[in-house]
F5/8 type C domain-containing protein (Nonomuraea africana), 263 residues
Amino acid sequence: MLVLDIAFAGSFTTSTEYTPATGERGLLVRITGLEAIHPCRGLLLADPAHGVRLPVVPEERGVAVRAVFLPEAGTAEGELLLVREHGGEAAAEGIAVDGAEIVISGLRGTLRRVTVTAFDGPYRPEPNAPGRTGHSDGHSGGNALTDGDPASPWASAAGGVTFPGEFVVDYGNARQIATVTLHTAWAKGQGITDVSLETWDGSAWVPQVAHHLIDWRESSAKVETSTVTLPKPVTTQKLRLTVHKANLQWGNLALYEIATTAP
Ligand SMILES: [Ca+2]
């Protein structure tokens, strides 16, 4: 059961009562009020006293807190994870349980996303839909392709990109797909511009859309989207994007999110 999911970067999406524009309402409270929210970056924690409090520890259940965090001196995001099974102790860097609150503090850097999950029994991370790619990883690993956050990027290495390349997403079980939307920022410099889509029928890849061409408009942090519409909705567990071409202004291509919709 997902209790809370806040992405501070990008569009500040949240499934809680938290109102990021005003900061101090809802389930999440900034500890000092001095923490800065920077669009497309996250919540800047410039002092160890900065942080957030989340008054959402469920009683009688286990709780897992995941925080995606970019250290002040670092170049790669990491994940901080605190798991407290029912009645157990928990400890994690930067995350503590204080009474009925979760406290994230003592860090310097940028907090990009926090999710809180309540569970019964032993902790089992929710299955996600890892994306994998034939392009070499330059940033974030494949999970950024399908982490639900349009602002968290996957990017290839800056150089040596060859075509065709591919992205494969395995959802773990079948789902209905009517459209596939690609999200990318700085897309005029690093967006995919020619892509084909296939779905998996259990034994083979089935062509759906060939050479979907994308004319990206933005050379900015704004996340743009391009939607590939299937000829008709398909029930499938996996999809494959074959990349024929991409903008390579900086030597890399990037894809921030692969999202699907059901009919
Ligand atoms: Ca993402």
Summary: Confidence is low (pLDDT under 50) at residues 10-26. Residues 108 and 135 are 32 Å apart (CA to CA).
